[in-house]
Amino acid sequence: MIYTEKSCKKFIEAAASKEPVPGGGSVAALAGALGTSLGHMVGALTVGKKKYADVEDEMMELMKEGRQLQRELLDLVQADIDMFEPLSQLYSLKPETDEEIAEKERLMEEALENASAVPLQIMEKCGRAIELSVAFAKRGSRIAVSDAGSSAILCKAALQAASLNVYINTRMMQNRARAEELNEICAIRMMKYTSLADEVFECVSNQLKKGND
């Protein structure tokens, strides 16, 4: 089942149910895709306007990259679901022999790392989308500046949600050195991009409160 082909209502109902998927990682990816769409809209409202002719080429490039990020994040909605399935099956296994226990542990370690990889990718894509929002906020159409700020803060929320889905998997990994490597990647992305998103939000918020054009 491809969850991105469901209606918004059906997706939300599925996420709200007791079923294991879609979970936090998939919802984070979808939120990130929504955030990138708002950035793209800023570009769409900027291109073709005489007032912004000097930044049109830049906006076109930003929109192209933003659209690609949106597609990738939508793919990651399903990827997170697909990666959780083998992990879910392993949780229900009840090994009896030493060999079966060892095999389950091996498969669990592999599944946990795979399940951590997807939210890390979500964080990477959302981080880049936040970087794009900086340019959209600074040089995009003033009538859509609120959407540039919304893009940044939605992608920040998606980034934070994805980070929790890294940590919930790495905490159960037996290879603690590898788990800490993944946690460090996660922490670096959090530190870099959440502060940048906050800067965009504050900048846009201040502009709107002052009523500056």
Q: Give the topology string: H per helix, E per strand.
A: HHHHHH
Number of domains: 1
Overall geometric form: elongated
The rounded distance between the terminal residues' Cα atoms is 47 Å
Helix share bin: over 70%
Classified by CATH, the class is: Mainly Alpha
CATH superfamily: Formiminotetrahydrofolate cyclodeaminase monomer, up-and-down helical bundle
- Helix/strand structural class: mainly alpha
- What do the pLDDT scores average to? 93
Strand content: under 5%
Question: Which architecture per CATH?
Answer: Up-down Bundle
Low-pLDDT runs of 5+ residues are none
CATH fold field value: Four Helix Bundle (Hemerythrin (Met), subunit A)
Number of helices: 6
The biggest beta sheet reads: none
Concise structural overview:
This protein is an all-alpha fold and 213 residues long.
Characterise this structure.
By secondary structure, the chain is mainly alpha-helical. The chain has a single domain (20-208), classed as Formiminotetrahydrofolate cyclodeaminase monomer, up-and-down helical bundle (Four Helix Bundle (Hemerythrin (Met), subunit A)). The chain is built from six helices and no strands. Helix 4 packs parallel to helix 6 (176-210). The mean pLDDT is 93.
